[in-house]
Amino acid sequence: MEGRKIHLLDSRYIVVATGSEPVFSPDVKPLPPRIFAPRHAATLPELPQSLLVAGGGVTGVEYGYAFAALGIPVTILHNSTQLLPRLDGRIAAILEDFLQKRLHIQVYKRDAVKAVHLMENAVEAETNAGLRYKTDYAFLATGRAADLSFYDPNAIPFVLTPEKALAVDEFGQTSQPGIYAVGDVTGAPMLANRATMQARVAVKHLLNDGTALLRPKSFIEMAYTYPPVGQIGDMHRAEDAFFVEKHYSSLLKAHLEGETSGLLRIKVDDQTGLIRGAAAFGQQAAELLGIIQLAMHQGISYHKLRAMPMAHPSYSELLTGY
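Structure (tokenized):
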């Protein structure tokens, strides 16, 4: 701590909201300006002539899309079997097809980036399989972890989760009395909407507010490509559930706006008719999932939801019984 001033603050409560930090390895790390991470994107001296994206999660897909939309050739290298691994496989495949055919993004999966080398006026990525990809610049989106840089286990022994984040209860309380934690520092899913809810709950609790608080079990997870893509709840196959698919090509609204490539998938419980999850790629996907989120948390069955006469023409008609 030499050279840094230490300020001691006395407080009845502390809320830890340090967020998360990118995860890099010694051979896959930023070397500005050609090998960069999200925080460096705004300081690029020029637009790349070509770009390699290491990672096909939300950050990699969003930035890859953004640069490709500027007309820059983009290559995504991803170690999983699909882009956006937490996303429904059918929707992920449609998104990948869209990125490849509309934006000409090259996607290579099932092979992790082993190292990214800085060369003269270029970069080269080497994969675990021994393949090499050479581009003008490289963007690193290899994952994030809770920022515990403030944490000294000898001073305050917090209980941590298996993923090395701060463990909290339903009110956001850590294992230490009077200390709350909200947001990415509490681990996945690392979402702004989840962090906002956690902050509201924590503040109400520390103020001894006894009113009922919304603590949803499922959160909408979005990736803001254009059109956007997202999901809520569980979309794995199950013997006691069925899937409903609604295509944007059936919507007058989609035809009027000239984009009909989207799809909405809803997972419904066989016995109760309740919605277990949903995923969508297309215009207004976040808003459609918002309606479904409300139905899920209020116990409104899919059959009751689809009976609602939504506005015409609108994207919400995907939820009706047409």
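The longest strand covers residues 113-119. The mean pLDDT is 94.
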